[in-house]
Write a structure and sequence with these properties.
single chain; about 120 residues; alpha/beta; five-stranded parallel β-sheet
Length: about 120
Amino acid sequence: MTSVLVVDDNDRNRKLALDVLSAAGFRTFGAATAAQGIALAREHVPDVVLMDLRLPDMDGAEATRKLSGHERTAPIPVVAMSASPLEGSEDWLEEVGFAGWLEKPIHVSTFPEQVRRYCVGGKG
């Protein structure tokens, strides 16, 4: 079963993403802070991490660098999630280590397939 970690400090956004993905057959984990997300990623090694860019303890870019720099979590694709359009920021996303980005608010009907595209090995 494909697993997804959603790191978002907005409880409603995180719950919606987790519920939609769970209903689509994903195994899900959620974290409200970057530190919680990093710890969960190291513990569970999900197939993909969805990372909010603005978190209370550190920004999503720094958290992504920490995941990329750790042997256990380095292979996990991390996808930026932002309410601000990131079109044209592909160079920055790649420099940070993001596999791509998804815009918030999510679209319930297309979200699971969007996430599946980023999963390790394309499984899901």
